[in-house]
Amino acid sequence: ILRVHRHFDKTDGDKLLVHSDVGRFYSCSLSEPEESFTYYSAIEDASEDLSFINYYSDGTDYTLIFSPIGFYRFSSAGLEDMGESIGVIGACMHFDRIFGVLPDENAVAFSKLLDPFTFDPASGGGKIYLMGGGGRLLKAVSLGSAVYIFREYSIYKLSALADPQDFSLKEVLTLSYPVRPRTIASDGADIYFVAGEEIYRLNASSVDKPFENVTPLIESAEKAVGRYMMDKYFLSCKMRKFGKETVGLEGTAGLITHNNALFAFGKDELDIVRGIGIDDFSTIPGADSEGVLLALSGNYGIFAGSLTDDGKFYGVPSEKFWSSHSLKPGDAEAVKKIRSVHIASTYPLTVGAESETGKDEFNVYGGYAVGYAPLKTPPGGEIRLYLKTSDKLCVSEAVVVFDEFNKYVP
Question: Per residue in 263-274, pLDDT tens?
């Protein structure tokens, strides 16, 4: 399993940092594609709880790395071991201090002002102990003037400005289902996260579920990963399969281990890619705009790839499949016979209609098309419409026209 992070460096160019679950740590240039990966032996930490924080100090761009074992600092000069960790995980930067959680102590730790690796109370750092239930401490997230502390089943708001004596803590939300820690992400105005299989949005004044219509598509978010990038909330999770069809890597045993879909939630749009397993994301520079780097799972767990819109997986066209729910149009108990299917498609594809009596398909070669699939349903039967292609998929205006017969006529 790979974890990726983009190190920003205005002077020497951005780098991609890669950490594997066997404790290996690498970097490579994002501005010089031909540059190979550099391996660093200083980090031999197999923990999944590493925190990466971009940090600028004394004219140098750094990435601060916090793990349960040690503190590290990365720059263009290399990787520095900054000493033994106090066990802090889920760290964030807030008003020139590091805030992180100490699950074993049920406490929040904060560093000395302008000194991210010093947590000693005698030097200006400190700890805040939490009382009551709420489950294991997971992560600290900076938002506005507060730090939000995530536990498995509750969220606290820590009002934290300059003086630790003025810090105040209160519980703001309790949850019935566990927070998925790797889905927590902020865009600076809101925090997005998944609890159970539902997506939440939290800010200083409210909490809601902005994508409730998508919840039925999510089978499991136990291993889900979420990031906010490029004005979208990206979520990798396990998506439900409707029917027996497989797409992408789903059809090969071992290629997908837990997550099989990528959701990208934009302001007014939703993109879904099923058939790929993803363990992490990062932005990468592109020729014209930013791109999305994917760290893949399963048998592809040693690979990373860039997200494209050409419908191919490492250059190989992938099968796309979309299916409607089973429908009972008109009189629920009547016999229906499909007369025609009308659809507008930008690219070639196959359109199919299916009922209990069988299925029929026709091809669309781009543009507006009317196809015929003269299927007949038994009384009370259902109809399902599906689309499939190995090309790009962009359709609209799908309409099924059917005749309805007396429900007593066979």
Answer: 999 988 898 888
